[in-house]
Design brief:
It comes from Hoeflea ulvae. The chain has 319 residues and is of the alpha/beta class. Helix content is 37%, strand content 13%. The strands form two sheets. A five-stranded parallel β-sheet has the order 6-5-7-8-9, sandwiched between helices.
Length: 319
């Protein structure tokens, strides 16, 4: 969530706005006039977050929602979101639903022009220390030959467990780094769980994989921006995914490849083993990289962010 907040800040800075990045431990009364609260299902419930649940905070707040509608976290924070002035949701269908009662939009953050630097300690992470693929000179950056064929990082779920169990033998034919998070699976990843480094490991693996595989948590085809765009497309890894909800900016067949779950392995094997598949994957990865870094689109997103952030809330709609 901090990565998403930083990327939102970059979007606004690129348009010339001044941005202060803070968290739930900041001084409530020293907050700026216009505030975006990223991931309200975490912000208002963890640490000092409950102290921010005040009328004077919520009546001027813009919520940036990141959670999926079918989860308990979404419904837990919904009353707080509906008390806000406006909302931005990472899901286009949810943003459309919110727009019926308050100013709302679906806006993705920007991604950095260059990948964030790799921490010197990252390769000592237990998940990388036992790996040898990253020692190759081919693993120095996203432009050269990629030592991994497929990467996937995500929290376990029955849907994902069935997919990987069913396709384990076929995936074993390739160089893969697949991690299904089971420990603390129902808890947010943060310092308390000791798992914050997993985000950096996932991004590092995606940067050195030909394919970033996306299997949804369940039957809801949510477009997971953080995995698909921030980790995959921004690092020129071709995204191979189950179908996703429509979203602003990224189209199946153009910016990522999509197929139903029972045919997804056929698509993955076509990309890895067939010359036509490889050519199509190269074109898709390049189109996605350019779309993720499009300065015109970035400026448009900044304008939308400002419009929603400064919009008059539902209490003033008829005044």
């Amino acid at each position: 969530m901090r990565e998403i907040a930083c990327c939102l800040g970059d979007t606004l800075r690129s348009a010339g706005h001044t941005v202060i990045e803070a968290d739930e431990n900041s001084d409530i009364d020293a907050r700026p006039e216009h505030c975006i609260y990223v991931s309200p299902h975490e912000f208002f419930f963890l640490g000092r977050g409950p102290e921010w649940v005040r009328d004077d905070v919520l009546e001027s707040a813009c919520m940036y929602c990141t959670e999926q509608v079918q989860t308990s976290w979404f419904w837990q924070c919904l009353p707080i979101v509906l008390m806000a002035k406006s909302v931005i949701d990472m899901s286009l269908p949810l943003a459309s639903a919110f727009s019926e009662v308050m100013p709302a939009a679906c806006v993705f953050p920007s991604v950095g022009k260059t990948p964030p630097p790799v921490s010197p300690d990252l390769l000592d992470h237990p998940m990388l220390r036992a790996q040898r693929w990253w020692t190759s000179t081919a693993a120095d950056g996203p432009e050269g030959k990629r030592p991994l064929d497929v990467s996937f990082f995500g929290t376990t779920s029955p849907h994902r467990a069935r997919f990987f169990a069913r396709n384990a033998e076929r995936l074993s034919r390739f160089e893969t780094m697949i991690y299904l998070r089971t420990k603390n699976a129902l808890e947010p990843m943060n310092a308390a769980t000791g798992e914050t480094g997993l985000v950096d490991v996932a991004r590092y693996a995606a940067r050195h994989a030909r394919i970033l595989l996306n299997v949804h948590r369940d039957e809801f085809p949510y477009f997971e921006w953080h995995r698909l765009v921030y980790q995959g497309m921004a690092n020129r890894s071709v995204v191979v995914s189950e179908p996703c909800f429509a979203n602003p900016g990224f189209e199946p067949g153009v910016h990522y490849l999509a197929e139903e779950s029972h045919h997804l392995m056929h698509l993955l094997e076509w990309v890895l083993n067939d010359k036509d598949g490889q050519d199509k994957a190269d074109a898709v990865a390049e189109a996605a990289f350019l779309a993720a870094h499009d300065p015109i689109d970035e400026a448009a997103r900044a304008r939308t962010l400002v419009a929603i952030l400064t919009a008059r809330g539902p209490a003033h709609a008829n005044q």
